[in-house]
Amino acid sequence: MAVEQRGPGSGTDVLIRKVDSRVVALRAGLRGPDLELAERLASCLRELVVVTAQASAADRAQVRVAVHYFVLRRESRGRLLSVRSLTATQRLVNEAARRIGRPDLMVEPARDPARPSHS
Asked: Which domain of life is it from (predicted)?
C-alpha cells in the first residue's frame, strides 16, 4: 500500500485563497481602522498558514480554526463584520499564534489617531 506524501502547498493554498477572498469582500464594507485591522488579521493568518505548512497536525488545526473563524464570521444588520467581531477574531488569531509559539505574529490593536500614544 502506497503512503501519500502531503506537500507543503496542499492545504496552504486553499486557506490563503479563503483569507484573500474574505478580505476582498471586507474591503467593500469596511473603512479606516476597521479595514486596517481586517487587513492585518489577514496578513497574520496568511503567515501563520505558511509557517505551519510542515508543522504538527495540532498546530495546523489551530491555524485552520482561526482562518475559518475569520472567513465565516458574519454579522446581522447588513454589516459584513463589526468591530466586536474583528476584536473576537483578533483574540482567536492571537491565541493561535501564541499556542504555536509565534507570538511575533500576533496582531496588535489598531491605534486610534485621536488618542495620543504613551511614549
From this structure: Bacteria
- Contact partners, residue 68, CB within 8 Å, separation at least 6: 18
Taking the whole predicted model, whether its pTM rises above 0.85 is answered as no
**102 contacts: CB under 8 Å, gap ≥ 6:** 48, 51
35 contacts 27 by C-beta, under 8 angstroms: yes
pLDDT of 31-66, one tens digit each? 999 899 999 999 999 999 999 999 999 999 999 999
Helix (H, G, I), strand (E, B) or coil at 97: helix
Structural domain spans, the chain: 12-105
